[in-house]
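User: Could you check the structure of this?
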Amino acid sequence: LGAAAGLVTKTNKVGMVAADDIPLLKKWTVSFKEGLQSTNPKADFLVNYVGSFSDPAKAKEL
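Assistant: Sure, the predicted structure tokens are below.
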């Protein structure tokens, strides 16, 4: 998905919202970033962590 995002971004800014900064989720955010960078090395990757798996309001805000 990161590689696809790198191909379609018009602003070179791609973001992700994840529940928490834990190893299980980190493997997905890191691989997304690597895919993004492989197709668009100029793209900036922004990631925000909600800090909870049960706070959809904060996730929406981020």
